[in-house]
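FAQ: What does the model actually see?

It sees only this:
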Amino acid sequence: MNLHINDFEGPLDLLLHLVRTAKMNIYDIDTTYIIDKYLEFINTLDKNDLDNTSEYLVMASELIHLKSRLLLNLDDETEEDSEYTINSEEDLKNKLLEYEQYKNASMLFKNLEENRSEYYTKIPEAIADFLDDEKLDVERHDPDILANILLELQKRINYQKPISTKITKREISITERTNYIRDILKVRKKVNFLELFEDYEKNMVVATFLSILNMCKNGEVLLLQENNFDDIVIKKVEDE
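And it is asked to produce this:
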């Protein structure tokens, strides 16, 4: 086992690691197996480094004492055993269970601490510390100014509201525009092209233009223009 002493927080941490490595339940651990593995690890430590290995050696003496009791099948604690804290398999299991609970709790608190470190808070401050000592002179202020400010604020709020609109599509047919042009030509005989438009929406322009082309094709009207860029005049063709 290539383990280093710095990998463990103490002898109980090492024992708990050995139990988990062996895939055992603490209630069902093979005490002799765990003790032997622990002593194998102790034999790899530097015997001259007593500062770091002393508590591991103390636990080793406890386990050796326990193993000797198990080999001798001693169940009752004697006066000679009073200096030891682990005198039975039950004592060892209880220590490991208690240590595991503390270890799990410490991991939980560590995770909570790490999660809390991601939040930043500001210590509450008294607003009064930032206020001027001078009292507000109400008589020097015009209440109408405040009223106007409130009205302007209300306008801004209204601007943020969606406008209720209803979009409708205007249908303009070529037949409708053709009849409209015919009615005008019955009265005026000829008319300026631009005078045919009630407005210049795309649908209106396209329908009117197609109507005039269709009427020219059928010989109903003539298109007249004296010079380039002059207004176009539409003239009705008289029946012979």
